Please model this.
Amino acid sequence: MTIIGGGITGLSAAYIAAKNGWDVTLLEGSAELGGLMKTFRIGGNLLECYYHHHFIEDLEFKWLIKELGIDDRLHFYRTHMGIFYDGTIHDLDGPGDLMKFPSLSTMDKLRFIVTSVYLGKIADWRKRENITALEWFYKYAGKNVTDKIWKALLEVKFGAYAQKVPLAWMIGRLKQRISSRRGMEEQLGYLEGSLQTLTDTLSETLRSMGVEIVMNARVKRLIIENDTLYGVDTTNGTFKGGLFLATIPTTYLSSLLREKSFEYAKRLSNIEYMGAICTVLELDRPLTHTYWLNIADTGFPFGGIIEHTNFISPDRYNGSHIVYLSKYFTQDDYLATASVNEIKSIMLRPLKKINHRFELEWIKRVYVFRSNTAATACWPNFSKFVPHCKTPIRNLYVANMSHIYPDERSCNNAIKVAAKACRVIGIDTSMIPVGPSLSGQIGMD
Model:
């Protein structure tokens, strides 16, 4: 089997297939493995370019790291959440903090709690796919709660798509967050040494299992005749025979299929991707007291402040304090093509509004990372747009970020999608536990 794409989905599928005795070749178009798990060096240690953490119920992720013998490096910590509203940081770790939140009546706050718990613990996403999250929140959580909390948070995440996001996605998101709580505390996990620990261990294990990993092998052409895929031409050779599993974004796959399978390519092109920018600050002191701060006020160029060293001790980074400024964007957004210096200027400008004492002298270094395919956009009845793993092209299977819907992208969900795709292909996956994540449920029957 040939796997196209060396992100976590492709790497996991390669491991599952090789574990079952399959001959596997993995093609990665760039010079490094990991995809959105890639890392860089900061404060004397490695850190993800795009923030990552793990949930208590990430059973597929826990299975894989145990298989690789690195499960002792996963540690869980209590985290602190907050929301920046009306120029002030408000803690949002539990009902007690919510009751202190301004501009919401007691009834508003009760409706917020009840509707959140209902979606996170009871609601069936299949029955809530035809209504948008905002429609439902306005009806059941109320106008005040929706305008002041949910609308702002959805606009932060989805921008121009916020009005279209189906309630099904919100159900997946809230189930994930609630499952990470033990009582009133949220506990999140982090892999010691960053996700580079996983990428390195997994790639070394794959090679020891006989998997051929070919780097700088960007696919230029799919060799298709009579609706059958016989091979792929890449920038590092041609690979023929057997089955092919494409784990690359549908936007790239559709362009490769346009010549030989126009109608299928057209269907794939209906799936739209959002980009993401993470501006990472290395500071000499903390910016806030929270780990995850959602920005509910308008006029900010970033939607979230993730202060990594309020999660993992700054001692791991030679005393530096590390902050992600996160922003999702559409493909026609100015940020999609803005220069690194322009992005730095835009992102740094409003930090004094977050912390009035902030000065540029606090900054040791600034890093900017951008991906044009960080997440799939979604809308009501989005499941109809998710492609089946088994494509109309014989020998070609597909498993990518679109299959994570209605859940949120994560390492665990990518591993789950990889396992589901392997099962469709005919590979035994009975040894892999099935966690509560909603990913991998569409197109994998």
Notes: Residues 43 and 317 are 4 Å apart (CA to CA). The chain has 13 helices and 21 strands. The first helix runs from residue 8 to 19.
